[in-house]
Amino acid sequence: MTSVKTLLGLESSCDDTAAAVVRGVPGDMKVLSSVVFGQSDLHADFGGVVPEIAARAHAERLDVSVAAALEQAGVTLSDMDAIAVTCGPGLIGGVVSGVMMAKGLSAATGLPMYGVNHLAGHALTPRLSDGVTFPYLMLLVSGGHCQFLIAHSADRFERLGGTIDDAPGEAFDKVARLLALGQPGGPAIEAAAKNGDPRRFAFPRPLSNKPGCDLSFSGLKTAVLRVRDDLVATHGGLLTQDQMDLAASFQAAVSDSLSGKAARALDIYLALSPAVPSFCVAGGVAANMTIRSGLETVSTQAGTQFLAPPLALCTDNAAMIAAAGIEQMALRAPDGMDLSARPRMPLDTNSAAMLGSGKKGAKA
Ligand code: KG4
Ligand code: ZN
């Protein structure tokens, strides 16, 4: 019987400095507090996350985040059973800041420390939000991630495929810039697309004829750029209706691509005959209603329950890191002071690491 544990989690791999306290046993956990200090204001002028600025901001805010998380949970460090920290993948300066903080706390308190793969944190979120049982199928779709995974256990993930270039959120952000819509691009495109015609422009569904679950979004972005330039040349500017039709047609292409590959991933997953078939989606892009309902439709057609954790747990946060720590504590010994911070850290070491670096840092 695994006993109830209370963990402090730290996350600093990209542009959110976060700390959280989570209590429970694997598959049955409760978030006692979750503090996230975003940095978007610091990076707004640069069109992406600036690693050096991010690292400094993390170093400045980690201790404040920890104090706030403990206070909000009504606990102190002496109530903790362990500390969990993101040790990769991510922007290395930020990851190092978090790992150093965890080592300092561990050395000062004697608490065991667990290094957690940031992607495992995302992939295990449905265990925290819904107590979903293994194995389940997972799609991570955000500004920095895009991959289909089968979570066999808290320490075994099978990567079925993912983007070979941009992450979908990154494509939304870039296309929003092309269409003179605001940032972040996802919500801006979704709003514009509401009044647009998704069939007006036949944008490509990249890699749809290739077997497997890999995706590509950079060609789609170029296709939008070409049509926009033609329209601007014709009208001397972009008409509002053109802008809305471009947004809707682009969104439809992303949604179709994700749903098409989700159907294939579901086939592979269902061949395992899981007792309770579950398809979970996480990441900022999962907030998009067109994409979400497309994924839900293929999931329902495959006879699989569809789960989307609340957005606050889907975007970068430390509760998912603490929860992954609780899961891993039941499976392995803690890490030592030689725990290293890693810029790249694939979840599935049998699958080739993906190249490319999104606006949100290195993809694993
Ligand atoms: O998970 P997230 O908050 O951060 C990381 O990337 O780690 O995801 C942010 C991304 C942004 O690229 C944003 O444009 C996209 O998610 N996004 C959306 C929507 N809301 C946020 N994309 C499409 N539709 C949305 N409604
Ligand atoms: Zn993330």
Would you give an account of this structure?
- It is a single chain.
- With 364 residues, the protein is α/β, with parallel strands linked by helices.
- It folds into two domains: 5-129 and 316-362, Nucleotidyltransferase, domain 5; 136-308, 2-Layer Sandwich (Nucleotidyltransferase, domain 5).
- 43% of the residues lie in helices and 20% in strands.
- It has helices spanning 40-43, 51-73, 92-109, 118-130, 168-178, 185-193, 218-235, 240-270, 289-301, 311-314, 319-329, and strands at 5-11, 16-25, 28-38, 82-88, 113-117, 136-141, 146-153, 156-162, 278-282, 305-307, 357-358, 361-362.
- The strands form three sheets. The protein has a five-stranded mixed sheet, with helices on both faces. The chain has a five-stranded mixed sheet with strand order 8-7-6-9-10, sandwiched between helices. A two-stranded antiparallel sheet has the order 11-12.
